[in-house]
Amino acid sequence: MCKNHVFAYLTVIGLLCSVDVMGQADVSGWKEEGHIYAKVYDAALRGNKLGNTTLYQIVHQNPTILALVFTRCTGICSPFLMQLKEKLESERDNKKFNIVVISFDPRDTKKDMYLYAKNFGLDDDKRWVFAVTDSIQHLSQSIGFDPVWDSTRQQYDHEAILVGINTEGYITKKLLGLRSEHELALLIGSINNIFSPSYRIPNKNLLFSCFNYNAKTGKNMPGLGLVFIALPAIITLLILLSISYFVRSSRM
To answer: What is the mean pLDDT of residues 77-99?
Structure first.
């Protein structure tokens, strides 16, 4: 009977762990963790302010906020950029950074992006760069962005995405959707090498965490902490098995 209880206990622990992982994978917060601390793809860019430039050349000059949009969007893109412009006004004098807006629509041209910037009054703002690239697929994959084309509406189904990139080209933080000034400030802090409480910095000394983030795969993997959670049940099971073995041996 005792062994049955122990097995039931272990089963419940396993189910709870698997449900917890699956549940987290369904929320946007889990998606925001993907590709953190990985390098962004160094895409070649074309824009009115640019010559032969790559994303890394901009990033190496200043920390960068990357936004992906398309000019024909009838949904989130324009409100998203308008909100971003307004909220960044308060950060203008605090920290140095660039904002790079790249179209993920192959139909967009350098001129389309210039006119798009002009509509927001950002064509003369030196911090803002509006560009197109022939490497949008590689760039999107490197940040975990996956827009879906809807042929009926002739529109992309996509999330509003902001990506924080430090001067070494590493993704420090991602935000999905329209966000608060506080969350935007955390992103700006992260690209300026200020610790963000949203994500734990990988550390080899953190041996007993339940999950460890793998920057290469962009996934959380089970850690030693899960073993220690189940350790009391495992010890109990071993004790019961030992007692059962000695009882059987004494009867023989």
So the answer is: 86
* Upper half-sphere CA count for residue 160 (Cβ side, 13 Å): 15
Give residue for tokens 């993920």: 104
Domain parsing of the chain, residue ranges: 2-26+208-251, 37-191
What is the spatial distance between Cα 92 and Cα 3, in angstroms, rounded to a whole number? Answer: 64
**Overall pTM surpassing 0.90 (yes/no):** no
* CATH entry, 37-191, from 3.90.1310.10, 3.30.70.1350, 3.40.30.10, 3.50.50.60: 3.40.30.10
Specify whether the CB–CB gap between 62 and 97 falls below 8 A. Answer: yes
Kindly provide the residue ranges of all beta strands, DSSP E only, lying in 89-224, ordered along the sequence.
98-103, 128-131, 148-150, 155-157, 161-165, 171-176, 211-214, 219-222
Angle between helix 181-191 and helix 77-88 axes, rounded to 10 deg: 70
Nearest alpha carbon to residue 67 among 156, 118, 143, 166: 143
**Average pLDDT of the chain to the nearest whole number:** 82
